[in-house]
Amino acid sequence: MPLLTILSCKILQDEVVHILENDPSVDEILVVANGQEDDFASKLQKTGLKFRFLSPDRLPDDTESYKNDPTRYSVMVYMVELALHEFPKILKTEVYKLLEELSKYSSGILLFYGLCGNVFDKIETDFEHLGTSCPVRILRDETRTVDDCVGATLGGCSEYLSTLKKFSDKGTFLFTPMYAHAWREIMRVDPEKPDKTIKMLRKVNEITGYKRVAKIKTGLSHTDNFDEKVAEFAEIFDFEVLEIEGCQNIFEDCYTSIKKEIVGC
After folding, report:
1. pLDDT at 260
2. Exposed / middle / buried, residue 21 (Cβ in 10 Å: 0-12, 13-18, 19+)
3. CATH of 3-146+248-263, one of 3.30.1380, 3.30.2000, 3.90.79, 3.40.50
4. Which of 76, 139, 185, 221 could bridge across to 30 with cysteines, CB 3.0–4.6 Å?
5. Taking every annotated instance into account, which residue ranges of this chain make up the domain DUF1638 (predicted)?
């Protein structure tokens, strides 16, 4: 059976864990030890999932037996640095490089990404040249690629648009558990001078009209202290806290689809 690679933003690591813990047909989980895997590996351990670390420098040799073993279905997970989101063009360049490289060792690749500022709008077309040897797929709903990780967690593009319209009277941050965990990193709060950065963010929020933060209830519990992290964020910026429902449908459906494409069942 083949080797499926999941190339994922670190924000979606909980969703990757969810996929793996609910697929008993996975014979082996491989995690690329590229310096971005610590939290993800810890969550796999807490879930009771066994895995093997692979060195990014030895992927050609270490993955050969998995891709060519007709009796086993393996999943390799490669986490991508979160900070790249700040620079969409660099993010696109790095992900495209990874796809070209990982496609040499994979039977198929599923990106746990959305459009991310439209930089991935043509990614499946751009990698059509790989054909059936290594199909490249990205998170999609029934009509198109989802906008981003929040859109995927809400269930797709129409659900995302509906949510944005619902909150159109006031600016609202939409937090998943991992977003709440990493908001300081995402918003580039200087750990050496946090007060200065937060003061600037307060001014930006005032100018742009942001007044609320909404917790997206994903149904997952792999990231600790979600409520506490959101409460901290709300207190810092004097925000109202709301709750909205999310789901795992997009992740499950896209995973099932590419698995069927490369495994045949």
Report:
1. 95
2. middle
3. 3.40.50
4. 76
5. 80-254
